[in-house]
Amino acid sequence: MSAPAPITLTAEEQAAIARLFEGGRPAFSLLSTLRTRRMGFGYRSETGDEETFDWSSRLAVRQREGPLAYTSQAQPIPLSEVEEALIAWAAIGPNGVIAADVPVNGDLSSLLYWAGRTVPASSNDMAVDLFIINDQGVHLYRPGPDRMAPVEISGPDDYWKILYWYRNCRTKIMDRRPDIGYATAPPGTHNVNAMGALQYNANRPGSTWFLPVGDVGLEWVNQLLSAYQFSGFYLQDPETDKPAGCDQWIRPGFLEVGFPIPTFDELALMQHVSEASCVVQNIRLACEAMGLGAWAMGGYSDDMLLGAYPEVARGLGFPHLERDPAKNPARTATCQGLPGVLDAAMTPSRKFPNAEALVTHVAKLRYERGAQLAREDNWALKVGGPFKEDTLRRVMEHPRTHIPDWVVQAAIDTVKYIVDKYGCAPAFTNPVRAKFSAQVHHVDIGYYRQFHAGDGEPFLVTPQLRSHFGDWHPAMADPYAGGVR
Questions:
Q1: pLDDT digits (tens, 9 = 90+) for 241-279
Q2: What is the Cα–Cα distance from 146 to 3, expressed in whole angstroms?
Q3: Exposure pattern of 173-197 as b/e (b: 16+ CB <10 Å)?
C-alpha cells in the first residue's frame, strides 16, 4: 500500500494537536490529578425523578433519591472531531514499528504483526479494536497494520495523520446509539438491573463512548500455536484428564505437560483484559491532558451490549452461536463477531467453518504476502524497520521462525476435539469481549462545586479543565465562565 497524501489541517486543528504534543502537562503531573469525573453535561445523579431513556432502552427509569441528588442544567455538548480523533489515537492508534526484540528461540514467531500501536498486546496481535459510540451512531476505528514510518508522529509535519486515521479508518456500524437496555430485569424481579446500577448515565446524548472490543479467539488460537511450538504444554480435557485430541504428539521434545482447557481459556481472556485496560488508561490520560471527563466503566453486561439477548436489548447486534446447554458447561455466551467487519477467530462461524480454517488462518498471518515474515512484499522492508536488512534475512531464514507442520496439525486436532465435545472453540469463554471501556464528556463543574471540598475551587477542577472551552471551543461561549450550576 502506498503512503497516503497528507491532508491539510486548519490552523485551529493544527494548534489543538500541537497543544498536546508540545505544550501539554508532563505524564507524571497528569497522573497526580488523574480522576474519573463521571458527571457530565446533561447527566443526573440519584434525583428520584423518573425519566425516559429515548436514546437507549426507551424505558421509564427512576434512580433512587440520595444525598448526591443532582440534575445537570447544562445542555450536552458533543466532543469535536479533533477531540475524538486525538482520544482515539491515544487509545489505540498507530505509532510506528515495534522493537520485535524477542529472541528467535524465545517465540519471536508468535508476533502476528510488527506494526506498533499506542498500547501493548499479547504477541502484538491487534486483537482489540475500538468502537466509538456518539450521537452519530457507532463506528469501528481501525487504522490497520500499514505504517508510514518507524515513528509515526515525529513532529508538527505529522500531525495531519491523527485526523487522517480518524476520517479514513472508521467503518460505520450503526446510525444511532445502541439500545443497551439499561434497567432491564428478568420477569418477576424487582431489584435486578442487568446493566448494573452504576451505569445510569451510560450512553447519554453528548457523550462519546470509547469501547474496546476484543477478539479473544485470536488470542486463544495464537496462544495455542505458541504453547505447542515453544512451551511443551498441551490442552487437556477437564472431564477426563486426558489429552484433547493431540495424543500422537505427546512425547519428549514435543508435548509433555497437560493444561486444562478452562484454565487455558481464562489465560486468553486475561491477555485480552490487559490490553483493554491499557486502552482505557490511555484514554484517561488523554482526557486529563485535555480537560475532559473520562468515566472508566466495567460493571455492565458486555454480553447484552454485544447483542447476546436481542429479545431484551439489541445492543450492537453481533450474532451469537446457539449452543446446546449440555455442551456448554460454563454457560457462556458465544459471540461470532460482526460478519465482514469483525469476524471473530472462533469456530464454527461464517469465516471459519471448521478447525482447519481457523488454525491455518492464524498461522499464516505471519507469512502471507505483505506480512513481516513474507518472502513477497515484505512488510518490514517497506516500512524500514525494526531490523537491518541483514538481520531480517537471518531471522527469516532461521528454522525456529517458522511454525512446524506438526504444530499446526496438533492445534487443528485439538480444536476439532473441543468443537466435537463442546460445540465450539473457544468453549469456556466468550470469543468476543467488551467488558472495560470509557465514556468521555464535558464535565459539569457545578456538581463538584456543590459537593466537593477544595480551597476556592474543588480540588478536582484542574487548570486544563477550567480552560477547556477557551482552548478547544474558542468560537463557543464558555459555560464555565460563570460557573456551571
A1: 999 999 999 999 999 999 999 999 999 999 999 999 999
A2: 9
A3: bbeebbbbbbbbeeeeeeeebbbee
Kindly state whether residue 391 falls inside one of the protein's structural domains: no
Q: 477 in a domain, yes or no?
A: no
For residues 204 and 56, the answer to whether their CB atoms sit within 8 Å is: no
- For residue range 81-129, list pLDDT tens digits in order: 999 999 999 999 999 999 999 999 999 999 999 999 999 999 999 999 9
- Measured CA to CA, the distance from residue 357 to residue 362 in angstroms comes to 9
Residue 264, domain extent:
13-366+403-472
54, exposed or middle or buried, with CB in 10 Å at 0-12, 13-18, 19+?
A: exposed
Give the cell for residue 223.
Answer: 496462544
Eight-state DSSP code of residue 243: B
Please write down the HEC assignment for all residues of 155-200: CHHHCHHHHHHHHHCEEEEECCCCECCCCCCCCCCCCCCCCCHHHC
Q: What is the number of helices (H) and of strands (E) in the chain? A: 14, 17
How far apart CA 47 and CA 311 sit, in angstroms, is: 30
| In contact, 66 and 188? CB cutoff 8 Å | no
> Which of 142-151, 194-203, 353-362 is the least confident region?
194-203
Q: For the domain that residue 248 is a member of, what is the CATH number?
A: 3.40.109.10
| Contact predicate 151/161, CB 8 Å | no
CA separation, residue 457 to residues 11, 289, 306, 399 (Å): 33, 19, 41, 64
Contacts 24+ apart (CB under 8 A), 248-251: 249/406, 249/410
Q: Is 62 helix (H, G, I), strand (E, B) or coil?
A: strand
Residue 395 lies in a domain: no
- For 278-334, the DSSP string reads HHHHHHHHHHHHHT-EEEEE--S-HHHHHTS-TTT--BT---B----GGG-TT----
Domain count, the chain: 1
Pairing of strands 233-236, 257-260: parallel
Q: Which three cell numbers stand for residue 226?
A: 505458541
Give the whole-angstrom CA distance, residue 215 versus residue 204.
27
Q: Give a yes or no: residue 5 inside a domain.
A: no
- Identify the sign of the CA torsion 260, 262, 265, 267: negative
**Residue 35 in 3-state DSSP?**
coil
Cell of 256: 509433555
Q: Which residues contact 121 (CB under 8 A, 6 or more apart)?
A: 127, 128, 275
